[in-house]
């Protein structure tokens, strides 16, 4: 049920992001979602790609500090309150969210969201129980 | 074989002192007669060679500094005709003119001898394969170790510095048993080995002699575990002879000074007053056998302490502690003395940080600011900002506790701090004072 996210350590200096995306492009790796968390000095680039293992390898080969993390991809109704409903489910079960970010939308009636939560297995249970659509990894990579 | 020259290395101190005194008197006479600069300096102080009546009278003699060598560039302090000089080296020299040193054939013999003692103490013998990855050329490192290794009959691999991947390949192919280079380069070799996917078990390395830059006890552990060797600290400076001035034995409890050739003192760098055993101060050497360039009370600017108690190895030669800093590359930040080695120790003690760091000193709004750049390794990386920020805080706190001043720690990408094949550049001082 987990999707493999690639995280990359980046110093805040110009050209680094272009370098990462350039390397991925040259290896024919498609990005379906990304987010950057930044501080004054550094940033963490988080990516969902179609070939996570290859991405991990080529970025390492190019000297980046990279790691792979399990995250959850969910689909919510693309209308007001759609996301709130899901967050409330997690909140009621006391499951904290480490971070989240949205997908580049490709499905017309659903918004896709990536979640990194504290208690991942428990979160999946709860979401299933409440009929939240969890996207399988294969489907996410193919987007 | 534990000693190269047991007779000298384990000699009773009283006998050693007799030899030292005799040689000191000869040296003082020689410089007084053949080096106008020394004669003038001694005359200014109202001293003649006959005033040296005991080893204790050493302190009557004037100091010599790097500046004196520069002022007499290139050959002004040589004590023999240039026809007697068979080798010239020059120190790495930071600013201004390089300091030039000359050796007679006899001097080269002494150098080979003290380096032979050094290598034997580090476990080398005639069956060893000694890979010399110190630079050859004007720098004394390469040829100094080379002559010592030849003296003990080892097989020498004179590869010099650089060509890191080739170094490693030859280490595997030739069955190198002893490595000689700077400690930072040893770590760089280990790092490159990992990249090449060569495991330490493929090497026959047993020990390494590392010097030419200060390094911490933790860095030793790092080198020892990554290369699966015993790492020995060696010390030397071109002005005194080159590598081989002092060396560690298997007990690694300070470096034995070859005091039958180089007479050490520890002084207060401010006042010049001679300090006692165990007290920290500037290390000063008087060469007592050298012909080409004898130096009287040469101020090394290295800060250390001397210990005269007998070592477990049986050697009676005095031990100097690891150099804890230099009187000149010491950074003073807001009045506090900071040595890069202190920060290195802190980083290595954290366990999760690579020993690749750089200190940037700047002055902003009349306030000194110390920034510590630390490379992020895979071990410490996290996809969560707060965990990296916690790590930054942890490093900051540990350094602040050690130094007693505030610092700014900045995590940087791996391999962004310049790797050096010689001395690592640890400090960038941008202050305009």
TrEMBL record, chain A:
Protein origin, superkingdom: Bacteria
Short name of one Pfam family: ACT_8
Lineage, uppermost ranks: Bacteria, Bacillati, Bacillota, Bacillota incertae sedis, Caldicellulosiruptorales
Classification via InterPro entries: ACT-like_dom_sf, ACT_dom, ACT_dom_pair
Name of the featured protein: Amino acid-binding protein
Stretches assigned to the ACT domain: 5-92
CDD domains: ACT_Bt0572_1, ACT_Bt0572_2
UniProtKB/TrEMBL annotation, chain B:
Keywords recorded for this protein, A-Z: Coiled coil, Ligase, Nucleotide-binding
Pathway the protein contributes to: Aromatic compound metabolism; phenylacetate degradation
Catalysed reaction equations from the record: 2-phenylacetate + ATP + CoA = phenylacetyl-CoA + AMP + diphosphate
Domain AMP-dependent synthetase/ligase per the UniProt entry, residue ranges: 82-285
One Gene Ontology molecular-function label: ligase activity
Catalytic EC class: ligase
InterPro entries in the cross-refs: Adenylate-forming_Reductase, AMP-bd_C_sf, AMP-dep_Lig_C, AMP-dep_synth/lig_dom, ANL_N_sf, PA_CoA_ligase
Family under the similarity heading: Belongs to the phenylacetyl-CoA ligase family.
PANTHER family the UniProt entry points to: PHENYLACETATE-COENZYME A LIGASE (PTHR43439:SF1)
Protein's job: Catalyzes the activation of phenylacetic acid (PA) to phenylacetyl-CoA (PA-CoA).
Protein known as: Phenylacetate-coenzyme A ligase
Protein's organism: Caldicellulosiruptor diazotrophicus
Gene name, Swiss-Prot/TrEMBL: paaK
């Amino acid at each position: 049920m987990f999707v493999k996210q690639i995280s990359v350590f980046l110093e805040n200096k110009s050209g680094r992001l272009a370098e990462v995306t350039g390397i991925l492009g040259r290896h024919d790796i498609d990005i379906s979602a990304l987010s950057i968390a930044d501080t004054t000095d550094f940033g963490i680039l988080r990516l969902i790609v179609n070939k996570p293992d290859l991405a991990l390898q080529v970025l390492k080969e190019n000297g980046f500090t990279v790691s792979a993390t399990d995250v959850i991809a969910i689909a919510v109704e693309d209308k007001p309150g759609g996301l709130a409903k899901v967050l409330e489910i997690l909140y009621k079960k006391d499951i904290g969210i480490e971070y989240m970010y949205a997908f580049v939308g490709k499905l017309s009636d659903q918004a896709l969201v990536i979640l990194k939560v504290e208690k991942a297995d428990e979160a999946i249970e709860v979401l299933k129980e409440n009929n939240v659509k969890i996207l399988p990894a294969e489907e996410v990579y193919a987007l | 074989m534990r000693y190269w020259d047991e007779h000298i290395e384990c000699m009773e101190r009283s006998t050693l002192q007799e030899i030292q005194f005799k040689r000191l008197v000869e040296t003082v006479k020689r410089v007084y007669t053949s080096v106008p600069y020394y004669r003038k300096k001694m005359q200014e102080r109202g001293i003649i060679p006959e005033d040296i009546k005991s080893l204790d009278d050493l302190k009557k003699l004037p100091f010599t500094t790097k500046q004196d060598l520069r002022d007499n560039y290139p050959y002004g302090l040589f004590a023999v005709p240039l026809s007697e000089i068979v080798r010239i080296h020059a120190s790495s020299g930071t600013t201004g003119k390089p300091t030039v040193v000359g050796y007679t054939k006899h001097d080269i013999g002494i150098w080979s001898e003290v380096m032979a003692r050094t290598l034997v103490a580090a476990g080398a013998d005639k069956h060893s394969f000694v890979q010399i990855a110190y630079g050859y050329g004007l720098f004394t490192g390469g040829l100094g170790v080379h002559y010592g290794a030849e003296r003990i009959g080892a097989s020498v691999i004179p590869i010099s510095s650089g060509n890191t991947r080739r170094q490693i390949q030859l280490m595997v192919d030739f069955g190198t048993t002893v490595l000689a280079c700077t400690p930072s380069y040893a770590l760089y070799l280990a790092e490159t080995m990992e990249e090449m996917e060569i495991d330490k078990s493929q090497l026959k390395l047993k020990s390494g002699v590392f010097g030419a830059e200060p390094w911490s006890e933790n860095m030793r552990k790092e080198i020892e575990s990554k290369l699966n060797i015993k790492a020995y600290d060696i010390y030397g400076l071109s002005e005194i002879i080159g590598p081989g001035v002092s060396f560690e034995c298997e007990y690694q409890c300070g470096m034995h000074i070859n005091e039958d050739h180089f007479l050490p003192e520890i002084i207060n760098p401010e006042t010049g007053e001679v300090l006692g055993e165990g007290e920290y101060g500037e290390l000063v050497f008087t060469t007592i056998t050298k012909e080409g360039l004898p130096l009287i009370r040469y101020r090394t600017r290295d800060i250390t302490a001397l210990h005269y108690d007998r070592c477990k190895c049986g050697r009676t030669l005095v031990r100097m502690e690891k150099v804890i800093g230099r009187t000149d590359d010491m950074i003073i930040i807001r009045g506090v003395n900071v040595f890069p080695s202190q920060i290195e120790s802190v980083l290595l003690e954290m366990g999760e940080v690579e020993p690749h760091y750089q200190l940037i000193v700047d002055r902003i709004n009349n306030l000194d600011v110390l920034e510590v750049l630390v490379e992020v390794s895979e071990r410490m990386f996290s996809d969560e900002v707060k965990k990296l920020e916690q790590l930054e805080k942890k490093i900051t706190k540990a350094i602040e506790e050690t130094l007693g001043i505030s610092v700014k720690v900045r995590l940087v990408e791996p391999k962004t701090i310049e790797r050096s094949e010689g001395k690592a550049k640890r400090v960038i001082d941008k202050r305009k004072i």
